[in-house]
Design brief:
- The chain is an alpha/beta fold.
- It has two domains: about 160 residues, Rossmann fold, CATH 3.40.50.300; about 90 residues, P-loop containing nucleotide triphosphate hydrolases (Rossmann fold, 3-Layer(aba) Sandwich), CATH 3.40.50.
- About 50% of the residues lie in helices and about 15% in strands.
- The chain contains eleven helices and eight strands.
- The strands form two sheets. Strands 2-6-1-7-8 form a five-stranded parallel sheet. It has a three-stranded antiparallel sheet with strand order 3-4-5, with helices on one face.
Amino acid sequence: MIIAVDGVSGSGKTTIAKKLAKELGFAFFSAGLFYRAITLNAVLNNVKPTEDTKLINLLNNSQIELFCNKDGTNSCFLNNKDVTSLLNTEEISGQVAAYSAKDFVLDYVHKLEIQTSKNNPNIIMDGRDIGSVVFPNAELKIFVTCSAETRAKRRTAQLAGQGQNVSYEKVYSELIMRDFKDANRKLCPLKKVEDAYTIDTSNITINQGVVKAIKYAFRKDPNKQIINSNKAQAVVDYFVNSHCFRTLQK
């Protein structure tokens, strides 16, 4: 069973997807790590975003794998070396967009995502084109959104907690720009597909968002056929006496 979770930046989609996976006993994968691994690979080999031929050759001669750990986190291996701790540096964050915009990079990552699903029978994957492009036939699709104002407030508070004094106005403007780029990029733009359920986290907690997602997994819709009866029953059987589910509703 595949559950696709897409959504805007800073909406909490990754946290919701990860917690949902834990509650369902599914494997969780964050698609963004593939793009970060490609960026790291290029930086380590001095391949610039403008050097398409070199980048293609590098991809063809590299191996990138994503694994779900017992605690729900992901480990990313580049050519059999664990590079997870190197993927969220400022250097990689500042360059990942330039590499991920390439059509051949998108194709490469989509193949990795599909292969990952084949290696894991029950998965939840989050990203920006998971339900629209990678897994258009996913049994359940969720789109997580949140107002820019709320996201900016949360992000500003988060940065302040880390000792970084960044103004709300700056964070807000960066989010608006990110939203525009994601929604208007030429290849695989961020969009909510017709058969996806929406979770708006503007005025709810992450746990409340997880509960909504669980309820969507339970729901049987004969018109959309989001989850067939056998798969739905497996989820229900797992949760009917789940202490975790009761705790999440509080």
